[in-house]
Amino acid sequence: MALFLYLLFGSFLLLMLMGVPLAFSLFVSTFLSMALASDVTPVLAIQQILKGVDSFPILAIPIFFFAGDLMNRGNVSEYLIRLCMTLIGWLRGALAYFTVIVAMVFAGTTGSSAAEAAAIGSVFIPNLIKRGYGRAFSVALVACSSVIGIIIPPSIFMIIYGSFGNVSVSALFIGGVLPGVLIGLSLMAVAFIWAKKYNYPREMEKMASGPEIIAALKKGIWPIGVPILLIGGMVGGLFTPTEASLVTVVYTLILTMVFYKTIKFRDLPEMLRQTAMGSAIPLFCLATAGAYGYLLAYHNVPDFVGNAVLGVTQSPPLIMLFIIIVYLVVGTFMDGVPAIIILLPITQKLGELMHFNPLHLGLVVCVTMALGLLTPPYGLCTLISCAIGRCKLEDAIKPLLPMFGLMLLVVFFMAYFPDAILWLPRLLVPNLVPATPL
Questions:
Q1: Contact 381/146 with Cβ under 8 angstroms?
Q2: Cβ pair 230, 172 in contact under 8 A
Q3: 248 within 8 A of 109, measured Cβ to Cβ
Q4: Rounded distance, CA 22 to CA 88, Å?
Q5: Most exposed among 238, 321, 341, 415, judged by the fewest C-beta atoms under 10 Å?
Q6: Using DSSP, how many helices (H) and how many strands (E) does the chain show?
Q7: 78-115: b or e for each residue (b if 16 or more CB lie within 10 Å)?
Q8: Is this prediction's pTM over 0.90?
Q9: What three-state secondary structure class fits 431?
Q10: What are the DSSP calls for 135-177, one per residue?
């Protein structure tokens, strides 16, 4: 057992430190541990790798990637900006509020915070800087706003957690709405304080007139239909999350090719090729992480860790705090998709021992893991935003800290007030919400 753990974890960490890509680090450490310290045959590893992606919910991941690319290339954000400017442009710091609102709407399409950081950042960061918002603040705001993309449905993290953890993806999607909205409101609160402190500009001198609002709604209201269609369809039982991804693509195609006419049919083959290339690496990482997680479960590592933690404390609040800290630390160094799969058996074992609601635990894990997209050295959303804004990482940290602090408070609210977070799923899809173990 000891040799197996040393090989499994030691080889993985060594390969990571050597700069080997994550998917190949997982692949090599899994095969090495199987060959030298386990009675599991390497053939079974291949089977587990195939099983890792042979799942109907997983099919939604590349489809949502494609939908997000359609929204980005179709310049849909421009129509949202015009709508937001018409509605709240008279407020001081309105462009900062626009950034958060557009990120929340885009979250209903992309399912990926990295894609959202690139899409939102390329539009908003230059404009925020140009309007005098400060380079560091602009970068930090976009980075934090883009994290909402992995929380508000659709969410790749929730698809992964639900698929591998036997939790309803639809219930996770609906449960992610409230945390996503709370994070959006908390970022707007920071923007409000900074706008007052640094006297950020207004985009309009006065409130828009009725005809101006109606004209903006005619073009700008349609992208908001994506999250409404997504949630409404799942709540009404019209389609599963995977089917919802296809509906989202069809809706987005009509929006960008027929209504806005910003994408031509000849553009689609190249977009599909890029989606396939962009999805290949995450899916391979997902597959190898599945085999890695299987090894952990086969050798009863979750039981070992669970008993070790219970030997220190049997307090449910402290165990929940332990889970949050572990995912925050792991998210600082590793991509969330393999991290969730690898830690899932241990997490669910602790949840079972502490009688946590499986849906509640999944929501806490997914949102906590999302914060890892902000924390260096991994901090993908922060790094992308810094690259777009040409801002040093150390300069962006100062405005990022209060935003990150409020987002962490949302995680703690979720963790210790489960009934508040489970209220919406229980209201809309009560048959998909598991009962809290006694």
A1: yes
A2: no
A3: yes
A4: 44
A5: 238
A6: 23, 0
A7: ebbbbbbbbbbbebbbbbbbbbbbbbbbbbbbbbbbbb
A8: no
A9: helix
A10: HHHHHHHHHHHHHGGGTSSS-HHHHHHHHHHT--HHHHHHHTH
Residue 257 DSSP code: I
Q: How far apart are CA 66 and CA 72, in angstroms?
A: 10
Q: Which has more confidence, 49 or 100?
A: 100
Rounded distance, CA 351 to CA 368, Å?
16
Phi-psi region of 93 (alpha: psi -120 to 50; beta: other; left: phi over 0): left
126-133 long-range contacts (CB < 8 A, ≥24 apart) are: 126/388, 126/389, 127/95, 128/95, 128/96, 128/99, 129/389, 131/95, 131/200, 131/201, 132/200, 132/201, 133/93, 133/95, 133/96, 133/198, 133/200
Pairwise CA distance, residues 228 & 218, whole Å: 17
Query: Running DSSP on this structure, what letter comes out for residue 240?
Result: -
Tokens of 72: 């980005």
Sign of the torsion formed by the C-alpha atoms of 370, 145, 151 and 277? negative
Q: How many Cα atoms occupy the beta-carbon half-sphere of 397 within 13 Å?
A: 8
Write out the DSSP string of 328-389.
HHHHHHS-HHHHHHHHHHHHHHHHHHHT--HHHHHHHHHHHHHHTTTSTTT-HHHHHHHHHH
The per-residue pLDDT for 113 is: 67
**Closest among 174, 233, 186, 234 to 421, alpha carbons compared:** 174
59: tokens are 């099919």
Answer yes or no: is pLDDT of 109 > 70: no
The answer to whether 290 and 51 are in contact (CB under 8 A) is yes
Q: With CA atoms as reference, report the closest residue to 146 among 405, 314, 432, 385.
A: 385
Predicted confidence (pLDDT) per residue in 421-432, tens digit: 999 999 998 998
* Burial (Cβ within 10 Å: 0-12, 13-18, ≥19) of residue 248: buried
